[in-house]
Design a protein that fits this description.
There is one protein chain. By secondary structure, this protein is an alpha+beta fold. The protein folds into 3 domains: 2-60, no CATH class; 64-215, Alpha-Beta Plaits, CATH 3.30.70; 221-308, Arc Repressor Mutant, subunit A. It is 48% helix and 13% strand. It has helices at 2-11, 48-57, 63-66, 71-81, 88-94, 113-123, 154-165, 183-197, 212-219, 223-230, 240-251, 256-263, 267-281, 288-304, and strands at 28-32, 38-42, 99-107, 129-134, 137-143, 168-173, 206-208. The strands form 2 sheets. It has a 5-stranded mixed sheet, sandwiched between helices. Strands 1-2 form a two-stranded antiparallel ribbon. The longest helix is centred in the last third of the chain and has 17 residues, at 288-304. GO terms for molecular function: DNA binding. Pfam families: HTH_30. Keywords: DNA-binding.
Length: 309
């Protein structure tokens, strides 16, 4: 499949843009690999026969996904996916601001689309709108009101979807949007960011707000630079328990008690492993700049050495 994908990319290189977000959604033909990587082709640069052939080969049945279920969704589809101008006042009256986008990507063959939509809306309360970009990708608009739940276990959500629908799902939870004036620009930025990092790590199924930025930076580094960074972790690279504990410590804002709670172990165990990491690598991760640097290194290990995680 990978070889076929590369041949398509080479054959239709004239129609593959450097930035696919510059192409209005209705002119995009999206071909998604099993690993989550997408090839976006500008249909305007293909013949009708080529478009029909590719849509048939890759089962691009879009009607069930792109038919708006309400006037509101038709407006949102026009504004966000077709990138048409919609007055801010109309958007302000349309959506319950503040709100946020929950972007998702599905890896696998989805059976019943409506059942998945119902499941997502139940898992993310106060989500009046769900729109599809293509058969693998879509987004929810979730209101941030008095019924909003901020302590949702995203790991439980992904596990539920996987067990119920036999597909893998990846999420990007966006930042709050204050009003209609910033809706389209925020959506385009988040959609591009999610496209850049989805599937980058075998274990990373959920990104929250600006958490995507380190992954975007690491993704674009040269392999030589990544290897040079990772050489600093060489003394502890084979100690998976130590690596897991330190990573959780960093993700918990260097709070040993919180990390211990999430890993179901005693705080002293976390503290011991943090001290052991510092001793072996000579990197004091109790200092914020060093902690940031090591967190980037951990992301690089996920990208370069997925078999170890």
């Amino acid at each position: 499949m990978r070889m076929f994908y590369n041949r398509l990319k080479q054959y239709y290189s004239h129609a593959v843009p450097a930035d696919h977000n510059a192409i209005p959604e209705q002119h995009q033909l999206v071909i998604t690999e099993e690993n989550g990587e997408s090839l976006v082709i500008d249909k305007r640069l293909l013949t009708k026969a080529e478009v029909k052939l590719l849509e048939t080969l890759f089962n691009q049945e879009t009607d069930q996904f792109f038919t708006p279920k309400s006037t509101a969704e038709a407006v949102l589809h026009s504004c966000l996916l077709q990138q048409n101008d919609v007055p801010q006042k109309e958007l302000d009256n349309l959506l319950p601001f503040p709100c946020r986008f929950i972007h998702f990507f599905i890896k696998g063959s989805l059976g019943n689309v409506e059942e998945l939509e119902d499941a997502l809306k139940n898992l993310f309360p106060v989500s009046p709108h769900l729109l599809w970009k293509n058969p693998q990708e879509g987004f929810i608009i979730q209101a941030i009101d008095k019924y909003f739940e901020d302590d949702v276990s995203f790991a439980s959500v992904t596990d539920t979807i996987t067990s119920d629908f036999f597909v893998q799902i990846f999420f990007y939870i966006g930042s709050p949007v204050a009003d209609g004036g910033e809706l389209a620009s925020r959506f385009q930025w988040e959609a591009a960011a999610f496209e850049s990092v989805k599937g980058i790590s075998p274990k990373k199924h959920v990104f929250v707000e600006q958490e995507v930025i380190p992954y975007m930076i690491i993704k674009d580094l040269q392999d030589e630079t990544k290897e040079s960074m990772l050489s600093l972790l060489q003394p502890v690279m084979e100690d998976s328990d130590l690596m897991e504990s330190v990573k959780m410590y960093l993700e918990c804002n260097m709070n040993a008690s919180m990390a211990a709670k999430k890993l179901y172990m005693h705080r002293n165990t976390i503290q011991y492993r943090v001290d052991k990491f510092i001793e072996k690598t000579s990197i004091d991760i109790k200092q914020f700049p060093n902690a940031v640097a090591v967190y980037f290194m951990f992301i690089a290990t996920q990208k370069l050495r997925p078999e170890q995680h």
